[in-house]
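Per-residue structure
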Amino acid sequence: MKKKIHRREFLSNVSQSILIAGLGPGLASELGISSAFANEGPEWLDFGKLHPLIHLMQETPANKIQPLLVKKLKSGKTDLRQLIAAASLANAETFGGEDYVGFHTEMALVPALRMSRLMPEKQQALPVLKVLYRNVDRIQQVGGASKKTLRPLHSHHAKSDASAATPGGELLRAATRAAELKKAEKMFAAMTEASLDEAYNHLQYIVQDDMNVHRFVLAHRAWELIDIVGREHAHTMLRQSVRFCVQAERGRLDKNRPESPIRTLLPKLLDQHRLIGRKPGDRQPEDAWVEALSHTIYTAGKERATDAVAAALAEGMAPEAVGEAISLAANQLVLRQGKGRTHGASMGVHGSDAVNAWRNMIRVTNDRNTVVGLLVAAYHTAEYSAHKSVQGEPYPHEEHGRAIGARNPEVLLKVAEGAIRENNQSKAAAAIHAYGELGPAPEQPVFDLMLKYAVSEDGRLHAEKYLQTVIEEFATTRPAFRWRQLVALARVTASAYGYNMTDEPGHRAPGYEEACRLLGV
């Protein structure tokens, strides 16, 4: 039965709504005033003890945020991990995975926190403060605390339409392909409530359904952020991917673009190679096999490359080994690009970040998604490699190496740093290649050098996550090939040095110099 609302309660609700409109949602929430009417629940997401910090980030102009955060850090009222948690929730509520700068900033938060742990104690806050400045600046650009893309899905609105006979992922994919946002959100909310791990497996169906690096990396980073924000906020993190995918489909339908060929190719290959319902193998190939598969992925075209990966999995090759071959193929996108900028939204950085995302996601998803994730990663990489701009000889060229001359590790690091500051991509790549060729040379000094510039430079929003990609791919690539990852990072770092988002030289990353001053470094 419908609840009868007394006149006094009705007038109270009306008065409260008028008051909230005047105060704004942030202040109203702090005062304990809700806009919810009977049977509706709250109108803003509940972030519990993180709310004051989130509110601060949403309300404060970017040019005033860093002194406030540094003061909190120095007083012990917060720490870097808590700042990242608050920033990720502020970002999610504001943008919901639907803003280009917004979701790039969300993707940079975990890498920034990991970068902080690699730095001297006095400098540890630098990478975090830099990314938080970017986050706050973008939030202010779109309206500050008044901008709320994510709102609560009340329990009576969040019932799943799933039937027992159909896997949730297939239904979620159907709703997404129809660009039915409310239906997809209700469905995914119910899935998350039932089982977070299974909900992530269901989410893979829509992440795998089109070729876009951002849908891949956002889904990966959102899962990582759950460890930082807490499982109680897991749905807030993951629903951004639902909204991203629905928005992308709506754009495709509005512009009458064809569906991605991956939607017909995947079922064909899964059936042809009998991969569904089959546990992935554990065969460990030799270096030559990995190199050969990598070459096929890079040169054979997207359909043949994807088929080659399907065949390898059908033969029982370990997913980690297959993923390594795809990663090496993506690395070639960086090394083989011709002249021009290689940082930011280049095919090499995008391709490498995408494969890294898939390799991480298949480590936490089920057997079906392990197989499909690798097929999508191969297709995406091969799709990039068809472009003429990435079909040259890999860096460093022979003449680049001859120009270096030096074979002392300390000298080579100095040459590399000088090349970075000169934006000399070939020289930086050649110096790090020569360093790696010295034998069992320690990689940490090279990572320390690249970390320095990943912190200070903008990198067109990609510096943090590409550094993390290379750190992880270096660690999971066999010794015969792993230095290619660092050579690529040297090239990208030299490309990024001094350039801002609009490719104007002579700039550090926004917020970096102020953070240095506040920290006294």
Summary: The CA atoms of residues 398 and 430 lie 9 Å apart. The chain is about 65% helix and 0% strand.
